[in-house]
Amino acid sequence: MKTIIFILTVFLTVTSTAQQSTSPYEWNWVKDGIWLGAGLGGSAYGLMLIQDKEDLTMAELNALNKEDISSINRWAAGYSSENASSISDIPFAISFAAPLALLFNDNINDHTGQYVGMYLESLSTTAALFSITAGLVDKSRPYVYDENLDTDRRLRNNGQRSFYSGHVAASAAATFFAAKVYSDFYPDAEGKFFIWAAATVVPATVGYYRIKAGQHFLTDVLLGFGLGAATGILVPELHKTKDASLRVSPTAGRNFLGDDYTGLAMSYSF
């Protein structure tokens, strides 16, 4: 009897050691598969809409007037810095690397599949919202108002995708996703303020240089930031496990027959 108890104790000890860390999220292959598929499908549809957008006509170009732009955006009309466009790519790339860097965390990489799945959902949802909007809405970029630029570039349909900033939306979705997941795994961690601050600064920097590059107006950047941040936060939040109050812990003692035992105790708080 004692031999059996010893074997069971060793088995439980090894099993407990090999257990993955607890994830605050849950994954449903059916629901999440549909979600991810819808996001990818929406993105593909949006890209088709963007490709089918018509170029600006010469008459429409000549009719553009900075005075018709709202005062909150008018100051950016005519911006067209190629250098700023190149610089914006740096924080843009950093934002996508931020969630991947969390995979070096032992607790998070125990749930790599779940984590990467949610990240892809955040990005595909953001891409679908942006691409469909950009494909349906015609709004001239700030550089289209720069009369010193090549006319052909000002006329091309790419110049009609100012609303809203996809770069900022994607950047915010990535950084806020990383901050949200880290906060959910470590709700009591110190220094979370700096993580959220970094999550804010990186896409804001992208937005600043996208404006200087003449790609977007201020309101385009603000909307992209808001939608991206909301997606990055809401996707993990919607995956929060519903049985977070379920707790499993090792236990040991002696039963009424006088035999020692080792096992797992399960408790649920209402």
UniProtKB/TrEMBL annotation:
The chain crosses the membrane at residues 163-181, 193-210, 217-235. The keyword Nuclease does not apply. Residues 1-18 form the signal peptide. InterPro entries: PAP2/HPO, PAP2/HPO_sf. This is PAP2 superfamily protein. It comes from Gelidibacter sediminis. It comes from the Bacteria. Keywords: Membrane, Signal, Transmembrane, Transmembrane helix. Residues 119-241 form the Phosphatidic acid phosphatase type 2/haloperoxidase domain.
